[in-house]
Amino acid sequence: MNEKKIIELKGVSKTFDDEIILDNIDLKVYEKEFMTLLGPSGCGKTTTLRIIAGFVTPDNGEVLFDDVKINDVPPHKRHVNTVFQKYALFPHLNVYENIAFALRLKQKKEKLSEEEIYERVEEMLTMVNLRGFEKKDVNLLSGGQQQRVAIARALINKPRVLLLDEPLGALDLKLRKDMQNELKNIQRRTGITFIYVTHDQEEALSMSDTVVVMANGKIQQIGSPTDIYNEPENAFVADFIGESNIIDGVMLDDFKVRFSGHEFECLDKGFGKNEPVDVVVRPEDVDVVPVDKGMLCGVVDSVTFKGVHYEIIVTINKFKWMIQSTDYVAPSQKIGIYVEPDAIHIMKKSEFSGMFGDYSSFSDELEHLSDVTEEEE
Ligand code: ATP
């Protein structure tokens, strides 16, 4: 990935049937970048991709390619190609002719010889591991093989940007994992910018240089996979990317937060005094300790074996904590939990606050504060 911008969306909005689908989207995509648009169904990922491809015109805002506005440039004149979940191969053409298709369209105009076409098709077949499949009927290929043909076909005319809309969505898990690696390798080898759409967070984290998390037609966060996972900007991102305990809290002061009826040290600052916040703690960051060593204590509701760890649910102060631990505890056992300051992530309240988990109420925390204030007075 380098720092040269290739695509930019500036204040892009789109409404369908009076519903705002994209709300003032700003996005920069760089050359050689593998960018993934990630979010739940209906959040506007495909619409964003279609605006970049030129199939949908935004109501407001600009689409720039190499800093030039392309809002009115038709799809076939943009330097982008798209791979869809449904492979959309030509059923009457064999593998070779499906891949050669884009070259055939300009064969006359650009005076491409059969040898040149052959070399380019063979290069593509090697890239997607389908040498020897030239004459095969595409209808008889497996889903994974058909998708390889679709990728080869989209790359043969060397687009500057490849748009991929849930391209692996129809494949089974094992094949999807294999194809994820292959796609990532193809992207690295060709240096083509990929903009990839998925609702699968694991897929986004494992393949991308940059992840764009979307919800309700807005971008919630843009960052590297580790940033997005370790430093989610709001409760939505924290919940959507991996599992999270999201608890109502009150920031008492810099580096001091109160939740679940206790005061905790944390690494966050710059919030207002007594500002209500969302406190996010990942299940794998909660340590199970003996009751007398716990910062909080509770009784285990349930324990489920998940292969690499146990998933333990403990109710503390009306909130059901999820803990992932390799140590077994028994249901109904009383346990203590311990959380390091760097495992406590503080987030400003957002439109998503209160949507996740089983909340202890703010009023509990605020009641406590008023008790303290009264005592002090
Ligand atoms: P999914 O993962 O389900 O494809 P998405 O995030 O890609 O979701 P979009 O396909 O961008 O979401 O759709 C966002 C919303 O816009 C949906 O509610 C969809 O019904 C609506 N929508 C998309 N295209 C049109 C259209 N041409 N006319 C009317 N509504 C549309």
Give a description of the structure.
There is one protein chain. A hairpin with a 4-residue loop joins β16 and β17 (310-316). Residues 358-377 have low confidence and may be disordered. The N and C termini lie far apart (59 Å). With 377 residues, the protein is of the alpha+beta class. It has 9 helices and 20 strands. It has 2 domains: 5-230, P-loop containing nucleotide triphosphate hydrolases (Rossmann fold), CATH 3.40.50; 245-376, OB fold (Dihydrolipoamide Acetyltransferase, E2P), CATH 2.40.50.140. The protein is 26% helix and 33% strand. The strands form 4 sheets. Strands 6-7-8-3-9-10 form a 6-stranded mixed β-sheet, sandwiched between helices. α2 (95-105) crosses α3, α2 (95-105) runs parallel beside α4 and α3 (114-127) packs across α4. The structure holds adenosine-5'-triphosphate. Adenosine-5'-triphosphate binds next to α1.
Could you give the topology of this structure?
Blueprint: E1 5-16, E2 19-30, E3 34-38, H1 45-53, E4 60-65, E5 68-69, E6 80-83, H2 95-105, H3 114-127, H4 143-155, E7 161-165, H5 173-190, E8 193-198, H6 201-207, E9 210-215, E10 218-223, H7 225-230, H8 235-240, E11 245-253, E12 256-259, E13 262-265, E14 275-281, E15 287-289, E16 296-305, E17 310-316, E18 319-325, E19 334-338, E20 345-348, H9 362-376
Parallel strand pairs: 3-8, 3-9, 6-7, 7-8
Antiparallel strand pairs: 1-2, 1-4, 4-5, 9-10, 11-12, 11-14, 12-13, 14-20, 15-19, 16-17, 16-19, 17-18
The structure holds adenosine-5'-triphosphate.
